[in-house]
Amino acid sequence: MNQFLTSLRYRPILKWTGFSTVIMIALVVCSVFILLLYCFIAGAPPLQNEQNTLVYDREDQVVGVEHGGENRYWIQLDEMNEAFIQATLLTEDRRFYQHFGFDPKRIMAAAIHDIKQLSKSQGASTITQQYARNLYLSHEKTWTRKIKEALYALRLEMFYNKDEILAGYLNTIYYGHGAYGIEAASKYYFDKNAAELTLGEGALLAAIPKGPSYYSPYTNFENAKERQELILKTMYKQDAITEQELQSAVSESINLVRQVEKVEERFAPYFQDMVVQEASRLLDIDADSVKTSGYHIHTSLDQEMQKALEKNVQVNMPSTSDMQVGALSMDPQTGEVLAVVGGRDYQKSSYNRAVQAKRMPGSTFKPFLYYAALESGYTPATTLMSKPTYFELEDGTVYEPSNYNGYYAYEPITLAQAIALSDNVYAVKTNVFLGEDVLVETANKMGITSKLPAVPSLALGTASVSVEEMVGAYSLFANGGKKIEPHVIEKITDRRGKTIYEHKPTEEQILDEQHAFVMANLMTGMFDSSLNDYMQVTGASIADELTRPFAGKSGTTKTDSWMIGYSTDIVTGIWTGYDENKAIEKVKEHQFAKDIWAEFMEEAHAESTFHAFSPPDGVTGVYIDPDSGQLATPYCAHQRLAYFEEGSEPTTYCELHLPIDDHGNKQDLESIDKQRNKSKNRNWLDIMF
């Protein structure tokens, strides 16, 4: 009876115990289901975070590696030394291929230790957990971080296979000295690829992640060597290597790269900086993200032209001079930047004077003015008086431009001569005649974005602009007036090979094609001695160095020296001067820009097919007398083939250079013709022209 009453008394307890157990199991099952559902909905976490960005030239050769403050590469498992992989697995996670991201035995042992020590010092992380922590989390030892780590680890195991996780871990683990991943570590410590590591080298690198500073072979070689040998012995005990391999690896000489000797200058550093800046703008991300996102950036860099430009800067600017340089070469048909020099020494100054600096371009600004003049009815034969001239401005002040060294023709000169001789009075007169706003509008249309004041002196290049702007604008003269966008990047792909940006050229016609060609022909005049007058043409000092026709314009101010010129294939601009805007006082210093330009352009075209400036439809060429601008006769000492828009070419013959008769009077063309052709029914003018 008592037993029966006792059993009745405990039945509710058993009932509630069983019910509670069921509830607990159900809660655990629900929790697991919710956890798995969360991980599934959250999806696969990315396997990579920061990776080195590679920069390629126009031939798809790697010319630079951008990695910010960290050095990272990504390679596949089959590109790694197999012994190194085994060493890492045996050291970090022997049961990696058996567990699901967590090792229960290690977790339980670590938890008991932490409870006993009242701390969180004991680690039991698997490779998956370490990978999750390295990618997504901090290394602080808190329960919150450990929970997040577990969730990331579960997601990694859910969506990726073991080889993918192991490859990711080995590509992201820190090996000290800024090297992340086995490839970066191999290059840093041994200057070789990960696949080329020896057993001893692989074991040494496998020792480092446990304590990158403590086990660095550079700072603590004995610690690194001791742990290396421990790893090798573990590999032997686990039958991963033979006894002979063990002994050989232990006695192997470790030849670390001497880092002081490994410092290398970046190739085309100013160009590579432009790549990062342009990518940052195109992708709307900061520069550090560009460097560490694993992009493959394909650029327009021509390595041979870059080397030639750097060499000619070095050869023509003596080391004793403090002058600086900004140089940029571009394909005028596409806007592709081919080569850049932003200064004499990148190590001393990374400031890019070809892009960032803005200086007064002097007379190199005149072609924009004269293009506007052609649009307004000027021709190469249009004449204006060259003599000292005063201009009264709207505010009542007087402006008096002067020519170089105070030289003037003191007679009318043609536009062809004015641009070849760089006559300042002709330029200012033209600017005032057209209206100063016209020059501003024309320069803006051609790609000059710097602020330009609408004043008479703008014709002489008194505003500040960059070399890149000027070269881009000159490209329109070289390509027949088509809009181009100066750029260094052709294509960007992400770390998976997906194209995320590709440059698309424009086809917009900005300038009148006929007038653009006439300007190109006018700008060949700086090298043509037939245009010499009250002084030599401005390109006389380098004309003999040029083996093919180029168009160009030089410019000088008190503090700046410029030379910009082009063929149909290449436009190159050179600026030289002092960073502090100090006056250029030596004549030879004003020559640097021209010498660099001439030698570079000759070298750049040495192996290329020559393409002449071809007149488009609507343009006609005639021989004129450079002084009068009229059609040349046999009595003209100099003749120049000049191009005109059809219908604007001169129709009368030059009478400046006719012979003198016996009475001291200049003969007329008609009487000369009659005397020379009394017995012939032919006209010598018809024969000549």
UniProtKB/TrEMBL annotation:
<feature type="transmembrane region" description="Helical">
    <location>
        <begin position="21"/>
        <end position="44"/>
    </location>
</feature>
<keyword id="KW-1003">Cell membrane</keyword>
<keyword id="KW-0328">Glycosyltransferase</keyword>
<keyword id="KW-0961">Cell wall biogenesis/degradation</keyword>
<keyword id="KW-1133">Transmembrane helix</keyword>
<keyword id="KW-0573">Peptidoglycan synthesis</keyword>
<dbReference type="InterPro" id="IPR012338">
    <property type="entry name" value="Beta-lactam/transpept-like"/>
</dbReference>
<keyword id="KW-0121">Carboxypeptidase</keyword>
<dbReference type="InterPro" id="IPR036950">
    <property type="entry name" value="PBP_transglycosylase"/>
</dbReference>
<dbReference type="GO" id="GO:0016757">
    <property type="term" value="F:glycosyltransferase activity"/>
</dbReference>
<protein>
    <submittedName>
        <fullName>Transglycosylase domain-containing protein</fullName>
        <ecNumber>2.4.-.-</ecNumber>
    </submittedName>
</protein>
<dbReference type="InterPro" id="IPR050396">
    <property type="entry name" value="Glycosyltr_51/Transpeptidase"/>
</dbReference>
<feature type="domain" description="Penicillin-binding protein transpeptidase">
    <location>
        <begin position="327"/>
        <end position="567"/>
    </location>
</feature>
<keyword id="KW-0511">Multifunctional enzyme</keyword>
<keyword id="KW-0472">Membrane</keyword>
<dbReference type="InterPro" id="IPR001264">
    <property type="entry name" value="Glyco_trans_51"/>
</dbReference>
<keyword id="KW-0378">Hydrolase</keyword>
<dbReference type="InterPro" id="IPR023346">
    <property type="entry name" value="Lysozyme-like_dom_sf"/>
</dbReference>
<dbReference type="Pfam" id="PF00912">
    <property type="entry name" value="Transgly"/>
</dbReference>
<keyword id="KW-0133">Cell shape</keyword>
<keyword id="KW-0812">Transmembrane</keyword>
<keyword id="KW-0645">Protease</keyword>
<feature type="domain" description="Glycosyl transferase family 51">
    <location>
        <begin position="68"/>
        <end position="235"/>
    </location>
</feature>
<dbReference type="Pfam" id="PF00905">
    <property type="entry name" value="Transpeptidase"/>
</dbReference>
<keyword id="KW-0808">Transferase</keyword>
<dbReference type="InterPro" id="IPR001460">
    <property type="entry name" value="PCN-bd_Tpept"/>
</dbReference>
